[in-house]
Amino acid sequence: KMTQQMRDLQLAQARKPPGPSSPNAAKRLYRNLSGKFRVNYTSFDEGSLVGRGEKEKLRKSYLFQSNAALFEAVELQDLDRVQELLKHYSPEELDLNTPNSEGLLPLDIAIMTNNAPIARALLQTGAKESPHFVSLESRSLHLSTLVREAEQRVNELTAQVVNEAPNADCSEKEKQLKAWEWRFRLYKRMKAGFEHARVPDAPSSVHLSVASSSSLQVTFWEPLSVNSAVVTKYKVEWSCFPTFSPLLGEAVIDKLKDLHFTIQGLLSGTAYHVRVSAYNMKGWGPPQASTPSFAIPSNWREYDGRVPRRRGQAEALDHLLGQVKTVHQHCICHEPCKNQPQSRKHSVSKSLKHLFHPGSKFLKTLKRGLYLTAVFYKDDNILVTHEDQIPVVEIDDTYSCLLMQDFLWLTKVSCMWDEILWLRQCVTVSQSSCSCILQTRFKMLLAISQMQGLLGIQDLGQVFFEPIKDKQGNILIVTLKEVKTNQTFESVRWVPICKLQSTRKSVSSPEEPTALDMLLISLQEKLAYHQRSSHALSPGLYLGYLKLCSAVDQIRVLVPEQLPNILCHVKIRSNPNISREEWEWLQKMASMEEPVPTEPEADRSQNPLFQELQVAIKELMTLVNIPLQEAKDFRLYSQEVLDFGDQVSFLLLLPPSDDVCTAPGQNNPYTPRSGFLTLPLQIFELGEER
């Protein structure tokens, strides 16, 4: 179904003499005839059309309507409709930067009617100004021409309506007259908006910071004035001289979603001055110098010339592992073991059929021992065996207590699931010592191999940070793995977690649940932990709080539940780099054994890092429930900045030396509020690496 307007448009196109037409011919014809076009989204019924060709025609007509609707919404200053169209269509589908028959773009209409909200919405989507306006004179001439032609057309139609007798043609001309009168008023308003506009003021603020040893970060804000026309682009200039003569470089920024720019390729140790100016349809405004007035590209490592801690570590570990394998070349089964990962070509969907084979060795119940379970989940579903059980295999049926060191060793093994067979064979060779520890770890490797073989999957995921223990003497080690593939697995049973929890028949009493029941009860919590532990921080510099507590066989570290792979932290700023000058100041403060900055001081008010640290320390102390006056005895770790890649870095806040690690039985007067947990230090280190 089509609206009457579209049928009129098609009839008009059919009456048009044959000849070459531009890609926008239909659009121009439509706008010249109707002037205004109101979209009725319910005027099409795609379900009533049959065939791909008709659907394609429908799509083109629909997009044509959307483009016309965008022009109309901008002309009518309908912000809600503009935002709706920008949300549901891409710039390409809307022809956002293709001029209409009058040589105008939606952004031109918005800025010349001085509609700042619509103009900003268009700019953030990538809208441009018309390429026809290469100068102030060309814009003024173009607007004058549009006003003159619209006025002439209004006069012609007025004369025709007055002189002709009332009939169908006269009624149509009256409609055209109203449309042209409306367009005439629009063009006059645009022309007046252009004539009364002035160049923009300087940006309200320009902040300059050191991004690296070869780059500077420039962040700026819009001019404060509301009387000038909408700003459509900015220009960043930099020079080694405060007079900006000569200029070393400049960059024009027309993507205004984020008002910042990184100047790359600078020389370390050289001072650079930066300024930013704004542009609107009247031209460039005056520049605003940055604060501070100059900056020197540098990095904290230049203070003493140290190299990155992690440089070459991955290569060194690979080399070390290769050396270990070379030493064990005498192992009889080593060669088959080395080639085994390449020979296993089972797809997940094919190999998971083992779950439903009657001869599989997954356990139904636990009988006092040490066990391994693998939790695979996808969305709200979990992988189960043919008996609706989470896959469980036995490690040792005579093992009554799990030594923490054995468990931590297994968590390290989880970083090399593909090497399990090789590790197992090497441990077999070493078993001549009959070490109890080696025997236990060998049984762990056997259980892992069994789980991998039954599932047909090498990667069993991440080991949960603590095993599940019940009162019957069972210990359950849990691995968690999220399946993100969208393929449909044949013969694989994915069961909704809620259904598994509600239908499984417990074999234990509520007062003394088995380890399997405890796993099902806490399954959502464990999956939430697994997902949160893979989250990454946004780029920036952070202040972390290092708090440890010790037990007989382990040291644990305090972490937030929402991000358990990172220390308790607050964000200092978005720029992760610590410059050499900032690091020198931190070193000076540490050498003087001054307390951490919690209160403002007049002589340091001009130090941006000092101010940022004050705010961050107050926020962090509130987060971990420590009175601010206690922070005066805390220390900033001044040996290094902890770099996690190129985009995240940490400064560490340490309690007094006697309180960094709380010993068993030691009173800790300040307990963090809810939302924190303590992880074994080795588990935390593994999560950090992941």
UniProtKB/TrEMBL annotation:
It comes from the Eukaryota. PROSITE patterns: FN3. GO terms for cellular component: spindle. It holds the Pfam family fn3. One of its GO terms (biological process) is regulation of establishment of bipolar cell polarity. CDD domains: FN3. Residues 1-25 are annotated as: Disordered. PANTHER family: ANKYRIN REPEAT AND FIBRONECTIN TYPE-III DOMAIN-CONTAINING PROTEIN 1-LIKE, WIDE AWAKE. This is ANKF1 protein. It comes from Chaetops frenatus (Rufous rock-jumper). The gene is Ankfn1_0.
